[in-house]
Specification:
- By secondary structure, the chain is mainly alpha-helical.
- Helices cover 50% and strands 7% of the residues.
- It has five helices and two strands.
- Strands 1-2 form a two-stranded antiparallel sheet.
- The protein starts with a helix and ends in a 16-residue tail after the last helix.
């Protein structure tokens, strides 16, 4: 197993533990709000990049992740949710969504190239 794969595996294991806690508490792994009627499962490292571990997220949070960051960049640079949350555009989204109800829905525009 190469160093890159080991690092991804370690990050995924940590995310899996965090996801279990979030899922048990009924919280979105990205924004931390209570989950609503619809829950989607986000591959922290995209499946196309070899990821297996998933975390529960709101549909709007899931769409926003993929609108802001490509799968390659998710695997390369944002394989943990803390790093993803620290992105300026994601931090702006998280501030905006913070007080919305669990089943809030709005159109999501694709932002990455």
């Amino acid at each position: 197993m190469s160093g890159r794969v080991k690092r991804k595996a370690a990050l995924a294991a940590g995310e899996a533990r965090a996801a279990a806690v979030a899922s048990d508490a009924g919280l979105c792994a990205l924004c931390g709000r209570m989950l609503g009627r619809r829950v989607e499962w986000h591959h922290v490292v995209p499946k196309s990049e070899g990821g297996r571990e998933t975390v529960p997220v709101h549909p709007i949070c899931h769409r926003t992740i993929h609108a802001l960051v490509s799968n390659a960049d998710l695997a390369r640079h944002f394989a943990d949710l803390e790093t993803l949350r620290a992105r300026e555009d994601m931090a702006r989204y998280l501030r905006w969504i913070a007080n919305k109800p669990p089943d809030f829905h709005a159109p999501t525009r694709k932002m990455h190239g």
